[in-house]
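For reproducibility, we list the full input for the zinc ion complex.
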Amino acid sequence: MAYQALYREWRPKDFSHMVGQEPIVETLRHQVETGRIPHAYLFCGSRGTGKTSTAKILAAAINCEHPVNGDPCGECETCRRLSGEESLDVVEMDAASNRGIDDARILRESVKYPPQAGKYKVYIVDEVHMLTTEAFNALLKTLEEPPSFIVFILATTEPHKLPATILSRCQRFDFSRIPVRQIAGRLREATDGAGAEATDGALMAIARAAEGGMRDALSILDMCIGYGRKIDESLVQTVLGTSDRGFLFRFSSALAGENAAEALRLIDELMRNGREPSAFARSVCDHLRTLLMAKCCGADIADVLDLTDETAADYVRGAEGISASRLMEMLDLFIALETDIKSVSSPRIALENVALKCCLRTAPVDTLALNDRIAELENRISQLQELLKKGVRPASEPKAEGEGEKPSAKKASAEGQPKPAAKKKPVAADDQGIWAETVKQLLRTEPMIGSFLRSGQLVGVKGAEYRWQANPGFEMTVPQLNSPDRKSKIEAALSEAAGSPCTFAALDRNTQAPDTGEESDDDYTEELADTFGRAALQVVEDIPPQG
Ligand SMILES: [Zn+2]
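The corresponding predicted structure, in tokenized form, follows.
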């Protein structure tokens, strides 16, 4: 026997074999029995909730010669024809693929002719929100003065995209997500039917991953059976590996964390699992959009996007660590990719390129990203102003005062009394010690920064600037570490360890390793002049003791 996908094999042939949607099924049965059939139905609901199956059953039931309790009998001439899919009386159109003016014309012409065998000519239009304006107009014209034998069943996942003129002429049914237990029940039947074995946990895991859609659930089960006859939870995880939300979350956090290596590794994993780059780009678009909405609306997205509460909570958590402007920046790149990827010879390269753009932030500068950076700079300036107000000199000390001791510690001993902002004791006696402590601390709080820092070393300290250089082969971490937010995190940790304000610079290997001996107050004065304006600067040799 030829292989048939499980979701086709288990597609219900009549209402009594449907899973879920009980109120809708009851209403439709009643309509079939009483013969009160409206000219247009609108079936709304997320994917895999049974809209198309219901439409097919309904089309058969209203044409059946001897319906049984509102179900098609399955035996009469009409039913046999319909199950053989050779009937001309039921026309299925997928608006997502048949979108041209021609289809609109064909539609307008063909509705004139009565059905060949049954009572009704039924048009099932899937994804009806995708129709072109011309096709909508043709449809509307038919709906305004429908021939008595015409029934339209329009199905859509996005009813809000339909014109009010269409909505007002349809009898609307909203399909809800099928509960996890009901899906698992059908999966159990399908597993037994296929002669496979599965644990309850595995079937529940599949049902959860399908998020209320029977078709997705059966497709996942199909893939699992393809791997082996014994299905347990770990097999389900393996199969879901690259197709589930977890993977998308890993991918988006790699992008947000500017972890280029991880993003490329995930794309490679994707390709090895035979996924389509363009389909994945679309999933990433959806995913980033959901994150962005979670950022803006919080848990309300459960209603807005019709998500389960669990999923909504995952997104709200996922959006916590990423700024809205960053999400928009990435979403823009992926929206553009969705279009571009269709015309390039290597979709994989296009996908990798956009992932790298997200990570390395070489996207055209947009004002939102600039706003982020300005806010960051303002923050740092005000911190600096605060320190200056307290009379602390954050930078270098005259070199004559000796080596191997931190400036603040020196000053404290020289004046007998430590300064308020500088009174903290450094955690180590020398630069290397302070550096080691900083890295250790960052590995705990900012593991990515910490591990970047371990791919190079401290090459010198000039004034209060800690200079770091990447080991050969790790140069890609330099711009990463110099990015404003990373830099400020490193500087905060350094300042904490040193007990006084410090700065950080990641150097290219092309840059000369700095001379550690020479330090000058002039550099620091220049920096301050740049920041605050020369007029605001008064250089004093010694800072007066605190009052
Ligand atoms: Zn029949």
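Confidence is low (pLDDT under 50) at residues 396-423, 514-519. The chain has four domains: 6-174, 180-240, 245-360, 394-536. Both points were considered when choosing residues for closer inspection.
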